[in-house]
From TrEMBL:
Annotated protein name in UniProt: Bet v I/Major latex protein domain-containing protein
InterPro entries linked to this entry: Bet_v_I/MLP, MLP-like_ligand-binding, START-like_dom_sf
Matches recorded under Pfam families: Bet_v_1
Bilayer-spanning residue ranges: none
UniProt cross-references to SUPFAM superfamilies, sorted A to Z: Bet v1-like
Gene3D superfamilies, per database record: 3.30.530.20
An example Gene Ontology biological process: defense response
Native species: Corchorus olitorius
PANTHER family found in the cross-reference section: MLP-LIKE PROTEIN 423
SMART domains, per the entry: Bet_v_1
Domain Bet v I/Major latex protein: 3-153
């Protein structure tokens, strides 16, 4: 493995069902920007295709370190059986530091609630680029807020 290639992983136990979590992450991500956490995800726009359909392209505006950032992403995989979604960044602020950046979310049902696993795969543009720990922390923060929202909707 190259020193520029990396992977960050995180897990979060949530109270919501895997199906409800998957539904938002794959098919209804605009809920994040309109209801769940507009201060962290101010916008999520569909640019091409249909929500939840492979190859659809979305543009996300997110706040990291107090600054608004943008990521244009393609939905690379969506598996409703295993509640798994993978997005790959095509353009935006992350491409200033990474030649490849993808985010995979897998939501595994538990007896009570679910386990959300996050995997960020990346290739840094240079040795001076730090791993995207802040992006992992942002995703965990967003998913905690999503869990609270989904529980309150039950």
């Amino acid at each position: 493995m190259s020193i520029l290639t990396g992977k960050l992983e995180g897990e979060l136990e949530v109270s919501a069902s895997a199906e409800k979590f998957y539904e938002v992450v794959c098919n209804k991500p605009t809920l994040l920007s309109t209801v769940v956490c507009p201060d962290l995800i101010p916008a999520c726009d569909l640019l091409d295709g249909q929500w939840g359909i492979l190859g659809s392209i979305t543009q996300w505006t997110y706040v990291l370190g107090g600054e608004a950032k943008v990521a244009k992403m393609i939905l690379e995989s969506a598996d409703s059986t295993n509640n798994s979604v993978t997005y790959r960044v095509l353009e935006g602020d992350l491409m200033l530091q990474f030649s490849l950046f993808s985010a995979k979310f897998t939501i595994t049902p538990k007896e009570v609630g679910s386990l959300v696993s996050l995997t960020l795969d990346y290739i840094k543009l240079g040795l001076g680029v730090d791993p995207p720990q802040a992006m992992l922390e942002l995703a965990i923060q967003v998913f905690k807020l999503l869990d609270a929202y989904l529980i309150n909707q039950a």
